[in-house]
Amino acid sequence: MPKTPTSQSKSANAETVAFRGGGFAPRPIGLVGAMVFVFLIAFWEWGSRVGWISQLVLPAPSEAFAAFQELVVSGLLWKHVSASVTRLVTGWISGTVLGLLVGLSIGLFSLARAGLVPLVSAMFPIPKIAMLPLFIIWFGIGEGSKVATILFGTFFPTIITVYGGVDNVDRNLIRMGQSFGLTWFSIVRKIIIPGALPAILSGARISASIAIILLVAAEMIGAEFGIGAYILLAGSLMATDQLIAGVALLSMLGLTVGWLIGKAEKYFLNWRA
Amino acid sequence: MDLRLEGISHNYGSLKVLEGINLAIEHGKILCVVGPSGCGKSTLLRLIGGLERPSAGQVMQIGEAPSDSLNPLTYIFQDFALLPWRTVAGNVNLVLEDQKLSRQRRKDILENVLERTKLSDFADALPRQLSGGMKQRVAIARALAVSPAVFLMDEPLSALDSQTRELLIEDLVDLWTREPFTAVYVTHNLAEAVRLGHSVAVFSRRPGQIRQVVKIGTPLADRKVTDPELIDRQDYLWRLMKDEALAADLELSDA
Ligand SMILES: Nc1ncnc2c1ncn2[C@@H]1O[C@H](COP(=O)(O)OP(=O)(O)OP(=O)(O)O)[C@@H](O)[C@H]1O
Ligand SMILES: [Mg+2]
């Protein structure tokens, strides 16, 4: 038999080298995420219908959905959501803007760094919920205290991500800017801020989640409208279907915020490939 | 405009990096600086361009910079230092935006330098889409945009593969032949030094001192890779450097 390459590779002491690379590279897979949701909800609905899950323990998704429809029909949905979103947006934006300013000064000025970093480290871990009674005294039981809770809750993490981002800007780029005689202001605006933007945006993701958590907590005290108030009321009436509807509303809010930040990342960081 | 380094010494804390450097940088000529790793070549370049202050001695500018020069001392960096979030045109524009120029003038400069570096078709590309050689051409375009009196180049080609390097050497020779510029060109690569340098300053190991300044007479445009005279010069430079390089290699870097 002639010795062709194939016959050679089948000979006794020749083997294909085993493949051992690959993996460790997560890639996006389309609908899987949505399918997990659908499957879980279907399973839950089925469990409730069969009587596997008692109504007392957990209302069926369909009931929660009915409660949600009631909200829509009565027009209360809009009132609750708009009250919450207004607080969320005012609190988060003001916290983020202030955090950006303070974080940038810490990143740029030695004096600000020396003076403020210890203070920030001391204040960051304080749960802002614990401060709520004080905020009520300072800013009133109305919108003030609620916005303040969210503001302070987002302010500190923003400071930390911003100055971390500024510290990580490639020093060679800054050196380059100086060597071309760019003004200080230009260097900050055109090199430092865009360089810190990836860190700032991932910080925004975290601070937005913190803001939602704080929003609900703050709305549980002295609020007439708001998703938190709705959930609290449902809870105290043991209206678990409404409670689930409220919680679902929160997670939709979270998803929306996450999606918006994702859009912002795509838009601002398109240079990152 | 010429530059003269007078008795430059520099140290970082107790680490003596440069000692007693006297050197003339002549108008319209390329001065190559070679020396073992860590002998202070990059430091010297930072001192020349005013990014750092020498511990002793001074860098003197002789004569006025040409009036059309927007940034007389201009660097080209080893790592290109391009802003990844700006396009090729944006990166060049960056250094023009702070200058008092009319919109039209800015546009003209941009077009001119992109054309000189053969980048006109890539004005809207982002750095991540470009090869290393292209990135360095963008950096060269950016430097040309401010019409420097002196280019300060710190191993501009050492991050590139040898074919790209060869192409860029030809580009630089071309640019120089069309319009002679002044440059201090730091390199590790002796072949590069003999291709581009009108003179080559050989540094000793740290603390860096000048061992010799070797002149090379052949006009830049006539230098070929295989030119026996250049090979001879290169060999001579290598013999000057060899012992220093060996000794420098054996030193602990955090000494
Ligand atoms: N900012 C700094 N602070 C302290 N030491 C420094 C600093 N910059 C450089 N050095 C030290 O000074 C010495 C000279 O550094 P320099 O970068 O100038 O050398 P070089 O000749 O450019 O080396 P290479 O050939 O590796 O680029 C090195 O030992 C380096 O560790
Ligand atoms: Mg160096």
The total number of structural domains of chain A is 1
Helix fraction of chain B? Answer: 25-40%
Please state the average pLDDT score of chain B.
92
Fraction in helix of chain A: over 70%
| Level-1 CATH class name of chain A | Mainly Alpha
Query: What is the strand content of chain B?
Result: 15-25%
Say how many strands of chain B there are: 9
Greatest interface and its participating residue counts: A-B, 20 and 23 residues
Known CATH architecture of the largest domain in chain B: 3-Layer(aba) Sandwich
Ligand types: adenosine-5'-triphosphate, magnesium ion
* Mean pLDDT level of chain A: 91
Instruction: Describe the global form of chain B.
Output: globular
Give the SSE string of chain A: HHHHHHHHHHH
What radius of gyration of chain A results from the CA coordinates? Answer: 27 Å
Find the CATH superfamily of the largest domain in chain B: P-loop containing nucleotide triphosphate hydrolases
- Indicate the proportion of strand residues of chain A: under 5%
What's the CATH H-level homologous superfamily of chain A? MetI-like
Lay out the secondary structure:
The complex is a heterodimer of chains A (273) and B (255).
Chain A: H1 5-9, H2 32-50, H3 61-74, H4 76-108, H5 110-123, H6 132-139, H7 143-167, H8 171-179, H9 184-219, H10 227-236, H11 240-268
Helix pairs in contact in A: 3-11, 4-5, 4-7, 4-9, 4-10, 6-7, 7-9, 8-9, 9-11, 10-11
Chain B: E1 2-12, E2 15-25, E3 30-34, H1 41-48, E4 56-62, E5 73-76, H2 88-97, H3 103-116, H4 132-145, E6 150-154, H5 162-178, E7 182-186, H6 190-196, E8 199-203, E9 210-215, H7 228-250
Parallel strand pairs in B: 3-7, 3-8, 5-6, 6-7
Antiparallel strand pairs in B: 1-2, 1-4, 8-9
Bound molecules: adenosine-5'-triphosphate (ATP) and magnesium ion.
Magnesium ion binds next to helix 1 of chain B.
